[in-house]
Amino acid sequence: MLSRILVPMDDSEHAGHALEYALVNHPNAEVTVLHVVGVPSMMMGDAVSLALEDDLNEAAAERSEPVFERAHEIADERDREIVTVVGTGHPARNILDRADDFDTIVLGAHGEDWSRATHRFLVGNIAEMVSKRAPIPVIIVR
Known about the structure:
Elements: E1 4-8, H1 13-25, E2 30-37, H2 45-51, H3 56-77, E3 82-88, H4 91-98, E4 104-108, H5 116-122, H6 126-133, E5 138-141
Parallel strand pairs: 1-2, 1-4, 2-3, 4-5
Helix pairs in contact: 1-3, 4-6
């Protein structure tokens, strides 16, 4: 039985489906939603703009608010509580660095649609990288 589930989430539809899956199929598990900001891009825009903020943690938290609002809406619809965590930097590294604290990882098959080509070019497919390197089971939801 799973007691702690990590659900990495961005603003994609697939990430929402992953959270729904975790909440519905594992009703007794504690679900933690991770949103990673400062993702590398071709021009390093998001990572650089975050690094230039006066308070990195506050800026990262602000950028995570819309994703966490959506995550809480999904959880509220299922009468569930979730824990939210903000990460900075590379999404796959953030997920993998936290994996040992969980029983499984549930993530969407695709990340943000606008950046999929950029992510594959620079850092590879996040779901693929996590599923190959995670020390715990990974469930990929479409």
